[in-house]
Design goal:
153 residues; alpha+beta; five-stranded antiparallel beta sheet; three-stranded antiparallel beta sheet; 5 helices; 8 strands; globular
């Protein structure tokens, strides 16, 4: 079976998202080589758009160190292939990528198994896609700025 086409949204320069984001073919990058022993091939199923993504494009969130820059700070993917030394993950497991600049606005990616968290695949796919940024941010805001007490809300 022939490999599917694979694409990624990448930023070619710093600026307004509609002016600097391009769809790039990454088929060769993800399907053109063998996986290293500890790598997995993932297919993104859902990736949200967060305000931080747009701030990053504009150069206001974090320094852009390499162009074209991968975009998408969070998302949920399923594993479609594992390297020979991968023990903690299997094909069809759902995962989140730990890397801040994980490039989740892609169809596929190759990641080291150490950069992944496994998530329950019975979760709603859209809720799972948002687990890395929104819940921890809300928790920190409530913990750091509000004296939470039972029954407040």
């Amino acid at each position: 079976m022939e490999n599917p086409k694979s694409f990624s949204l990448k930023m070619t320069k710093v600026g307004e998202p509609l002016e600097v984001v391009e769809k790039m073919d990454i088929t060769q990058e993800v399907f053109g080589r063998q996986l290293k022993a500890d790598e997995v091939l993932i297919q993104y199923m859902a990736s949200p758009i967060n305000p931080s993504d747009f701030l990053y494009c504009r150069g206001l969130y974090s320094e852009v160190t390499e162009l074209p820059a991968s975009l998408g700070f969070e998302g949920v993917a399923k594993i479609i292939k594992v390297g020979p030394s991968v023990k903690n993950f299997q094909v069809n497991d759902w995962v989140l990528v730990k890397e801040l600049f994980g490039g989740s606005w892609s169809t596929h990616a190759i990641k080291s198994q150490s950069s992944l968290f496994k998530v329950d695949n019975s979760l709603d796919v859209f809720a799972a896609a948002q687990l890395m940024i929104n819940p921890p941010t809300a928790y920190r805001m409530m913990k750091d700025f509000v004296d939470l007490k039972a029954g407040m809300f």
